[in-house]
Structures are given as C-alpha cells and as structure tokens.
C-alpha cells in the first residue's frame, strides 16, 4: 500500500511501530526480494512524471494562433478565391517569416532549458532480506527501509523509525531556511509539512546525523509529486502583451469588415461593377492588416530575449520579456532568492555585552570597536565551545549542518581552527543532539580532567546552568538571572536571529551527565544574510512603482526582520500574515482581503497558499511576477503573469513552470529585465502607431478614391509591397531603439490600458489622414497638372506613399525628446532601414520583372519631383507641430 492512497491514514501522526505494521515491514530484515517485486508491479517506479515539453511542431503551431495572423490567413484565402494568386503568395510569405522567427527563438529557449536539467541516477541504501544493499532510488517501493546519513538526498517520503541526531534541509519544499531535526515521535494530525518532525520528504537533503526511514510514498504520491501535479493543472495566464495584441486583432477584424462592406456598397451605388468592388474589398482587407505587426513584435521580443540572455536571464516565452516590464507586484521567495541560503553568525551575546560579528570583514565588534578574541576571555571561550561542539567540516566543499558550518567559519574569523583545538583538547566522545534534550555535547581530554562543550536550544541550556561566565570569573546564576537570559533570547529571535546557547563545564571523569551543572557562556545569533545588491534592487523597484512582497515558509519574526532589512517592509507597515490565516480569494472577508493586500510579508506559507496569494493580487488588478527556486514555488510560478525561477539553486520542477530563469540567481537581474521590458513595450507601442497610421492612410486613400469613382491610388499588390518595405524594416528598427532615461522613474502601466491609447488612436488617424491626403494630392497633380496616364499617376501615388511612410518614422519620437537628438535619430538601424527602403522603392519601378508584377512605370523627372515634394509633407507638417507644443508647454528641447 501507499500512504497517499488512503486519505484516512497519516503516517506522521501514527507511532512508528504502527506504521511498520501497516506496511508489513520487519524492522530488522526489511522486505524480501519477492515482496519488492510484487509491490513494484502494484505501485510502479519511484519517479516523477516529467512535464510535457513542447515539441518542434507544437512550438511552430503556436506561432499562428493570434487573431492578426488569422486575419492575414483570411485575406490570403479571399485572394485565392478571386484568383489573386500573387497577392495570396505575398501574404503567405509574411506569415512564413513571422512563424520562422518565433519558432527559432522559442525552440532555442526550450533546448537551453533542457540543458539546465541535472543528469545522473541517484542511489539509495536499503535494508532487504536482513542485509544492506545499494539500489537505484527509482526502484524503491512502499515499505522499504532506507538508511540515511549526512549528505544523502531523501529518495522518497519516509516515516522516521530511527534517528541519531538526524536533520534535513527542507527549504526547497517548505521554504524553512533552518534544517529540521527529525525524530521517531508522532505529531498532531493537522501539523503542516514544516512541523512533521517524524517525516523526511523526497527531494530534501540530510544535513546531519543518521537514521532509518520507512518508505510510505513514492513517485507522484510523494509531497514533491503532489506539487508537480499541481504545476501541470495550474492555470497559465495570458501575458499582458498577448491580451493587448488579441484585443488589437479583434479591432482590426471589425475595422476591416466594416470598411470593406461600406466601401463596396458605396462603389456599387456609384456604378462600379461587382468584380471591381470585390477586388477593392480585397485591397482594403490587405491594407487594413499590418502584415509586419506579428513579425516586428516577435523580432523585438526576440531581441529582448537575447539582451536578457547576455544578462544571465533565460526567457522561455517571448512575451514574458514585455510582461515583466508591466509588472506591478513581485512576489519573492526569501530563502535563496532574497537571502543567500547560508547561515552566518551575526551576534555573540555575552554577560553584559553584545559582540557583533562582521562577516564581510571577518572581525568582531563591541560598541563598534574591534575586539581581539585572544584578549577577550569570554568571547574566546564562546568561540572554542562552538568549534569543539561541532560535526561539520570546512574545506573546498564544506559538509554538515549549515548552522555548524557557520559556527566553524566564525571560529576561523577569530583564528580558531577545529583541528588545532582537537590537538589541545582531544575528543573522547560525543553526546548526539536529541529532540528530547534539544542539546548536543562533546567531551574532551583536558590534562588530568575533561572539558564538556555544550550547545543547544537556549531554553534547554539555560535551565541546566548553575553559573554564568562573567568578566572576571564565573558567577552563580539564579532564576532572575535565567529570566534575563531568556529575555535576551526572545529579543534576538524577534530581531530575526536563529539562537543557540553555549555552555561548558570541567569534570574529573568523562562519564558524568553532560548537561548537569553547566556554566552558561552566552548566546549565538545566526541568520541567513541578504544577498548582495538586493536592497538596492528593491529600492529601484519602489522608484518604478513596483511592490516587492516576501512569501516564505519561515517564521513571521524572521521573515519580518529580513523584510525590514531589505526595505521590503517599513517599521510602521502591516505585520506579516501567517499562512494559516490565508484562504482562497473568493473565501476572504473584506477585512481579511484588506489585511492580506496591505502586508508586505507572508510567512509559513504552503504551496496552495502561494497560489492563493498570486490569485489575490491578480484579482486586485496587479500584474504579478513570482520569483522562487523551490519545488513549493512551482504552481505559483506557473499561475503568475511572469514566473521567474532560479537557475543555480532552482529545482527542475520550478524551472519547468517558470517563464524566465535567472542563471546567476541574482534578484538584481530582475530590475534590468523590468527596464528592458518597459523599453520593449514603448518600442512596440511606437511601431504599432507607425504601422497603423500608415495602413490607415492606405485605407483612407483607397476608400476615398473608390467612393468618388476615381482610379485606385494603390493596387492590392502595391499595398503588400509598401507594407513589406515600410511595415517590416522601419518598424523593426523602431523596435530596437534604446530606452529613455526616465523609463524606471514612472509607475507601471494600468493593466486595463489598451495597447493603443486614445491619444495613440488620435495620432494614428491624424497621421493617416495627412499621409492619405498627400498621396491623393500627388496622384491628382500627376493626372490633372502633368497629364500623365492612369498607370503613371498610380505609380506616383504608390511612390509617394512609400517614401512618405519612410520619412514618417521620424514622427515617432516622443513629444519630450529632442528634434535632432533622440532615440530614433541615434538608432543606426533606423538609418539602415531607410536606406534599404529607398533602394527597394526605386527597384519597384526600374527592375523590369518587379515592375511588371506591381504594375509600375517610370514616373520621369517631373514625377519624381512630385513624389519627393509630397512625401516630405507629413514630416514637415508634424515636426513643427510637436515643437510648437513643447514651446507652448515651456519644455523646448534641442
């Protein structure tokens, strides 16, 4: 059987002997080979189901799902239906280019993610048929007895049946930064994962001691498997850019249908033939759709992906680059993300004195003055005890409990090395840490006697001390003195420290009770230090109007202290919210919702509650970015608008669920991504206005000519050619522009804000009207003044459109930027795109084959003068208007 298949059975809440009986396991012999084979046939292998990776075909199909792409497909099919094969082929080329670019970029991201996965097969030591054997971990079955030692990875969910100072690092699963001591005792049935001391969970690591565990769940039935299944079922949100492009696509569909119907009807009433008006409707459909929009949006995001990769951020989905720029809230895990996931000694509390340990400088300070441990008796004694009473080892690859490693490193800061101490005081024996005493002791030879070094939980050690180390000598410790030490312990814990007490005694023999009549030396405050640069990154987020919230499995006091140290929370902010008080967003009362939204720290949070927190802020209108590295973060990473996983410390499950992976695990990289994301959105918005205004000018010109019964100023294939020359190249150049200096000093965009704002639509219609008017005026001059043929006049209007839209790129500068010095004029890609565009427009007239397909003829010198003069009119009209506006507002630039 398996523990997860019986909802009424909780192995953590049952005595270990009862669990052994339930699984029919002999604690001395383990399972027999025959029984193992039977159980494997029943339960399968001890493996997690791998997340389904999108294959090449799936990635390719994803490139053709937007409404803009579907509208282009509809236009191509309509062209084929009316025997306009060349137009259909031209549209198909635009579709293929977009699909190819998006496919290449996302397929490379998928392959890069696959390279991050760890390789290798984990082994486990088990007891079977009365003997110890080493077997592949995926061959374990429920009821197996697994032997654990420091350094092992727990291969399945285990009920502990024997513990000798066993402790496990469960930070990847629970978020708890301190190793959890394991015992054989049962816990209450409602205890959370972090409090189930009788269980060891798959995917966690043994940091100290040894023990034996009974396999109670394997594979997807383990806690890590349950979370992995939550990742597969968690709803994945559309990104803000995807939502906006979808909305824009719907508007373009509506605009195309309305304009086509109205113009066709007006043409029929004006006496045009049905065939002529159907061809005109196809031309309008082609003009209405900016063929370059999906291409340029994809390339701009792909360029952002490459720039992020150079900054150690791997983006799995193109739209996630922009989405991070739209983020209003960042939910960050604490352990390993905001902090280093490395315990450090920060404070040594002695009688009447606090000595601070400055880790970066490797020194001790008392009242900000350096202290030499060799000349400070009590500090020296404290350092010796914490180094002697220790099982960890330093070196190139430190091993052991992270807390004990921190004690050894602090000892080295004081010039105390364990090997040297053991030469002076050889270790006779050790009294392992036990959950009953909450203490550990080592006994050392000291001349004719013995020195007992003790460390443990403050409340346990203080109760066993009869004296304390004072400045001159040891003095008696009464109950009032013990209360003072308890108060100091409480104050240190409130300040975010993990507190240990140190004590010692001298004795004539090594067989005495190690915890009787101890001398209290002091308290050690350990903490998980913040990562370098995180405080500055949090401040930068605040300047950009982005809230950074901490979501952790740690205790509220510890989490609150770190949050204040990093600037995430202020002294007067709402207190941390405990995970036990959280519910789904729908189940919260107004008061509970208000309190949850006001806090900056969520502590003791489970995986399900992380999902609730993401949903709570999304429902409140936030664009949520979720960072994390543990298995417990994965469902929320997938649910968030942008999931950001850590590449070094991150688990495979978290990386699979995320949209972005930080290969250097640096929170500061997120700020760079936000800046880049905002710049990309500005560029996308800029080239969308450019595209729509140019295409709308085509619609206005063609519609006006059709309604008036005049020759069409642009033929369908000419529209496609202009859109290829002007939509793709200049728009792509606009998409590669650098960000403005003030991009990180403005609040995030409103989530409900359209991709094109009302002001943007006004600009689109204004620019479109000017471009249409100048092109129609150029055609009228060619027909009425120069008395050219219809074919030549249409060629002049075609060239006027093309060149006017090339120069129009300079109208895309922001109103507050300089006339001559701005991101557009400083963008070399803009000048390159104009040069290429000029060559392609000239080729459309003078290359025989191309001219025949497009229906163009040489306009002559007079015609070229008309093209040049009228094509410059839009920029000559718009630029003085922008400068006049700045002058009126008193913001003249240049």
Mean pLDDT: 83
Low-confidence stretches: 115-120
Quaternary status:
single chain
**Compute the gyration radius: what is it?**
36 Å
The count of β-strands is 26
What overall form do the CA principal axes indicate?
elongated
- Give me the secondary-structure category: alpha+beta
Q: What's the CATH architecture of the domain at 344-527?
A: 3-Layer(aba) Sandwich
Summed up, the helix count is 30
Question: What do you see in this structure?
Answer:
The protein is 49% helix and 16% strand. It is an alpha+beta fold and 894 residues long. Among the domains are: 322-340 and 531-672, Rossmann fold (3-Layer(aba) Sandwich); 344-527, Calcium-transporting ATPase, cytoplasmic domain N. Strands 10, 11, 12, 13, 14, 15, 16, 17, 18, 19 and 20 form an eleven-stranded mixed sheet that branches. Strand 24, helix 22 (634-639) and strand 25 (642-646) form a beta-alpha-beta unit. It is elongated, with a radius of gyration of 36 Å. Residues 115-120 have low confidence and may be disordered.
Key traits:
single chain, 894 residues, alpha+beta, Rossmann fold, Calcium-transporting ATPase, cytoplasmic domain N, eleven-stranded mixed sheet, 30 helices, 26 strands
